[in-house]
Amino acid sequence: MSAVVELIDNVNRDWNKELIINTFSAADVARILQIPLATERHDDIVVWRGEPSGEFSVRSAYKLLHR
């Protein structure tokens, strides 16, 4: 497994419970299954939380590291 998307049943828009149970510890399974999934599929986007604009800059990374 290389991505979280592999843990999702895209037909039913639900977690692939069998795969999760067979891959993770019981404690992790419980945590994963508590995470709600979006009801509609959306494309991924890159967002940098260090700036209100969501765009990465070396300056904002530097400021974040020195907080």
List its traits.
single chain, mainly alpha, 67 residues, elongated, 34% helix, 6% strand, two-stranded antiparallel sheet, 3 helices
Walk me through the topology:
Elements: E1 8-9, E2 14-15, H1 17-23, H2 26-33, H3 58-65
Antiparallel strand pairs: 1-2
Describe the model.
It is a single chain. The chain has 67 residues and is mainly alpha-helical. The protein has one domain (4-65). The protein is built from three helices and two strands, in the order ββααα. A two-stranded antiparallel ribbon has the order 1-2. The chain is elongated and about 45 Å long.
Number of helices: 3
Helix amount: 25-40%
The residue ranges in which pLDDT falls below 50 over 5 or more consecutive positions are none
Structural class: mainly alpha
How many domains make up the coordinates? 1
H/E series = EEHHH
Whole-Å distance between the termini?
A: 35 Å
How many E strands?
2
Radius of gyration, in angstroms, nearest whole number: 17 Å
Produce a short descriptive summary.
By secondary structure, this protein is mainly alpha-helical. The protein has helices spanning 17-23, 26-33, 58-65, and strands at 8-9, 14-15.
